Amino acid sequence: MWVCLVHLVYLVVWFNQTNATHGLNERIQRLFRSLIGSLMIPRHLAATCALIVSLLCGVPVSVSADSVIELPVLGAIRQNNLGVFEILMMWWDRKPEPNPVQLQWLLAGVRLGNDHLGAMAHAFAYAVERTPSVQHSGTVSVQGVAYRPTGSDGPSAGAAMAVGFIAMFKGEHIQRGVALTGTIEPDGQIGPVGSIPDKIRAAAREGYRTVLVPREQIHDQRWNLNELGFQLNVSVKEVDTIDEAYQLMTGQRI
To answer: What are phi and psi of 87, to 5 degrees?
Structure first.
């Protein structure tokens, strides 16, 4: 389901940019064929779906599909142990103003609490610091996408957001199938979080096969992540720093 949703968001960007049904580049062609095959709907209905999603997601016409970062965010809720899966869409307009670069959160289907917003601001500042060769100006926009309206709070997505912002500034991409949970510490270390089993269950439901967790949290008296990963066909790996997580999530070095 999430693959189809992400495909729709890419199509939204394409329809906004071209407003046509021909001249697709190779990447959009693959996404379009995948969407049609996955949903088993006619081409004209797929176009309609994409236009509807465009009203919801708000990605501006000036944004290239290739420049949008899709960042998986894992969370937990009190009602059950199934966890929550969200996607944060990040894009940067690269305009000369404002200078220095500004960050904006676009309120949509995901509402963030103060702790989460604070972690985002910290991750953003860290990403700016780690990319000194980049001209940091313009506006960076972030918007949450979920199945239904939801709320999210806490700092446990800080490390993932730092990876996402750095990838965005460097023009690189997050590899699909890999998710990260962990706080971000001032020195770039990844700090411990709670409810990791719930987050792994959420990732597994969406087809993610690798979940990165903070160092020394696989072997915790509260859970057995190796056994859970075996049951769900998910590889659980420990990471110590943002640099280590970045390489596993993008295939590149910072």
So the answer is: -120, 130
How many other CB atoms sit within 10 Å of the CB of residue 221? 5
Residue 241 located in a structural domain = yes
Structure tokens belonging to residue 58: 């708000």
pTM of the predicted protein model: 0.76
Both tokens of 176, joined, read: 């699909």
Q: Which domain holds residue 76?
A: 68-250
Q: Helix (H, G, I), strand (E, B), or coil: what is residue 172?
A: coil
Paired residues of 178 in beta bridges: 210
Q: Which residues of 119-156 are buried (b: 16+ CB within 10 A; e: fewer)?
A: bbebbbebbbebbeebebbbebbbbbbbeeeeebbbbb
| Spatial distance between the Cα atoms of 203 and 210, rounded to a whole number of angstroms | 8
3-state secondary structure 82-114: CCEEEEEEEEECCCCCCCCCEEEEECCCEEECH
Choice between 59 and 22, residue whose per-residue pLDDT is larger:
59
Which pair of structure tokens corresponds to residue 25? 């580049």
33 plus 153 within the same structural domain: no
In a domain, 133, yes or no: yes
On whether residue 197 sits in a domain, the answer given is yes
* Mean pLDDT, the chain, whole residue set: 79
Q: How many CA atoms lie within 13 A of 129 on its CB side?
A: 11
Task: Tell me the three state secondary structure of residue 182.
Answer: coil
CA angle in degrees (0–180, nearest 5) for 81-232-200: 45
Dist. CA 188–CA 108, nearest whole Å = 30
